């Protein structure tokens, strides 16, 4: 295998396509990801070629580049890729077949139904979970008789996929209840899968179950967003308007800065001991520590800032930022601004940034220091205008509404037409419709 290195960074469609057709496998893999992420339609034929390219193969027989090309084609949602995707289903790489099925579902072309049905009936090793989910997405209701036996499959994830399909078809509560049961499963991966299945169903009952589930807030945010999008689509189609929007927006608002309500706390413990409890392996213990630190209040601010600067664990940093954000002390302003400005990809750090943004809203709406308010507004405006993470932009909107100065109102008015994400745009619109000016006295 020949290994070369890209002569220019991948920062445009041209450079990404050039890298995709090069020789370095890792660079080609990243190029396929970049083209999918940025939905470069002109890359469709090049990604189809990569889907057929067997040069990059692992010792276990897998095809990483071909899988990534399939995922990218799913992001493009270009129907011209379907014939190549269907051909790729003959590959022996099970993970590639799964990626191809998911891409077909994302594209939504019903011409794939006969091929998917054949795989379903093959009685050989197949990505059955992905196939059943795809058939539900494509509304292939004619294969119900083939799906129902999978409710008894040895794999609980396949069972859930079948329940999801049958609920979408029948709207019978017994199937959604099957999914809700898995939200409290001992296996966290099954809890995650159930959350995604319920998010795909898009039912308000599913939202209530997700909110109380033992899954990460990032997963809750993502799937509540999917449910809200489904609700908005239904309203647009049927010309109706329900109360679900307010409920879901309120739930998302709350998840951006959890309050750990109902958790018993002990105020007798020293601050140092509480900060040490943030390192506990059980998140419930850390949540109790956060609650106690918040109740103690401003006395904990300096020790928490020091602990954050010493800590490298994103999960613990998240608890610290949550505490500082809820206390809303101006001494944490510099740290919260710095955290909001960090560009990283993993979900935990994304959660930290969102909580920091909400902390800026707390500080900006309670202090009478005009300089501090200006700094909060400046960073929140930056986040709203420059950040890809929809939930961080959403958090910035909530905080700008909380600060509620004429400047933040103008920022939201100008941002509204620029928001491409439907849920972020709805939250911005709701903020403006329910605007209440700030009541604090500002000192220059």
From TrEMBL:
Annotated Pfam families: HEAT_2, HEAT_PBS
InterPro entries found in the cross-reference section: ARM-like, ARM-type_fold, PBS_lyase_HEAT
UniProt keyword Glycoprotein, yes or no: no
Keywords of this entry: Antenna complex, Phycobilisome
Entry protein name: HEAT repeat domain-containing protein
